[in-house]
Amino acid sequence: MLNYSRDFKFFVSDLLALTLLSLLALCMGAAYGDDEFDSTTLSEAWIWDDPSEECEWNLTEVSGWLQIICAPGEHDVWDSRGPGPMMLVKAPEGDYSVETHLKISVFPGDSYAGLVVIGAEGLGNPDFIGPWGLWRLEVGPKVNWSFAVAGGANEAFSRPSALPDEAYLKLAKVGDDWECYYKEKEGDDWELVGTGNMDIGEEHYVGFSVGNWNGAPEVKAELEYFRSPEIGAIFPVESAGKLCASWGRIKVSAARRQQ
Fold first, then answer.
1. Could you please report the per-residue DSSP string of 4-25?
2. What is the domain range of residue 252?
3. pLDDT score for 202
């Protein structure tokens, strides 16, 4: 004789277990991957570095995006770190990669936005002469890799940008090599534009840089996400974390009812 009550309990228990495992995998993946900038507060892992004290950032002007506003004037990273704004996190040891999707909503002449890596001594120091590297979208429009080890900045390589004010950028550290990738749309394959070589030192930072030169007007750049398998676990996962906690409580409650 079939015991429908017992079989139903087993079915419910198995279903809850499978659902919980799926949600845990989702949450672990989210915690591992990126900062989506979908909160009203910025993770404490980020460092706002603005030597000029003229620039600003927000998470409210464009919902789901980090906006960095560079004041008019001279905020370029070139022969030195300069006064321009950067949003940075400490880079991990060894190889890693970072990527983002950026838009420049106010894009005057002689300005840029992109990914930056910079030696630890460059934080807050506009006279720092390197090492630093920039993989950025700039007026042209073009994407280019520029760097300096001890002064004397160089533009190593570039390519035209398909869109004048938007790009997907990825930067991968492989030893002392820096692989620079670009794509036009989310579903496109990454294109390796070039590989630069630069010893960044043991301690350095990585993140976003927005700037201008030749007295250019204000620049507004929006960053949709910061994605890095090696760095991402330092960012909190608010919505996914709450989801995990809720399903954990449901599973415990169901188990108690079956006892």
1. HHHHHHHHHHHHHHHHHHHHHH
2. 4-31+239-258
3. 84
